[in-house]
Amino acid sequence: MTDWWDYHLIDFLLFSTRVYYRLFVSFNLAFWPVNLVLYLAGAVLVYRGLRGGRLFQRGILVVLAVMWAWAGAVFMGHYYRPINWAVPYILPIFAFQAVIMVLFSLRKTPLVFCWRGDFSSMAGVALLILAIPVYPFFSVLAGHDVLAAELFGSAPDPTIIGTLGFVLLMRGTWRWLLLPAPVLWCILTSLTLWAMDQDIAWLPLVAAWLAILGGWMDAKSGVTRKPEATSPVHLNRAQRGAADPAGLVE
User: What does the domain layout of the chain look like in residue ranges?
Assistant: First the structure.
């Protein structure tokens, strides 16, 4: 009888690396117009998020929620579930994240995306660059079909790394409720990639570490707290402009 310590991570996978990346080929071929639109929407989200505007601030969270729902329901539920026994236990993570982002978008005072010039902002932009223009090339560099590219907005890994980037760019109370689900996925997917001996296995863990570190540094510097007296909800238009000329306070 084999002892439990004789097992390795690869023993828990019911698929090979080739089968795993073939899933993305099938997924991209079946839904290439939708996946491409979601991918391009990611670049628009970054541009609009850094420019500001209350309507677009709410819209960013809604679009991110759609991306999580799409990656969870379609890729995870339809393509990944048949080969991975753990997917049914993971799907609630995607559902929770999509719902909570919609709820945040409905708040009276929405979360605000902005460049603050601090560690979190720089780490957030770095993660967005990694997730959107860079990540699709990793599968090609690893020798897989170009159609196996993992695209932000539809493939889980770049979508979730990009989400961490957006969270680091947010300003407002309770925003760190958006962190647990992405961080948990980063740990799970890193273990999967490590079991398949993929060189990028460390990237999701680095993304999770940057998000946690950024959250801790923001909490220490008081970014997540704001005095009630200067809240734009309680100021008239003239006072609001004087207190926050850039329009960056939640």
Answer: 14-224
pLDDT in tens, 183-216: 999 999 999 999 888 999 999 999 999 999 998 8
pLDDT at 140: 87
Q: Which residues contact 175 (CB under 8 A, 6 or more apart)?
A: 104, 111, 167, 224
Would you say residue 178 has pLDDT above 50?
yes
The Cα 98–Cα 62 span in angstroms is 8
Beta bridge mates, 210: none
Q: Does pLDDT of 105 surpass 50?
A: yes
Q: Are 203 and 139 spatial neighbours (Cβ–Cβ below 8 Å)? A: no
pLDDT at site 51: 73
The two structure tokens encoding residue 240: 């609001």
| Residue 149 DSSP class | P
Region 132-142: mean pLDDT is 92
| DSSP state, residue 79 | I
CB 163 within 8 A of CB 68: yes
| C-alpha distance across the termini of the chain, in Å | 60
Residue where the block lists tokens 């601090």:
118
Structural contact between residues 154 and 166, judged by C-beta atoms closer than 8 angstroms = no
Residue whose pair of structure tokens reads 């628009």 in the numeric block: 44
Give the global pTM: 0.83
Closest residue by Cα to residue 168 from 128, 108, 222: 128
Q: Measure the CA dihedral 50/54/59/60, to 10°.
A: 30
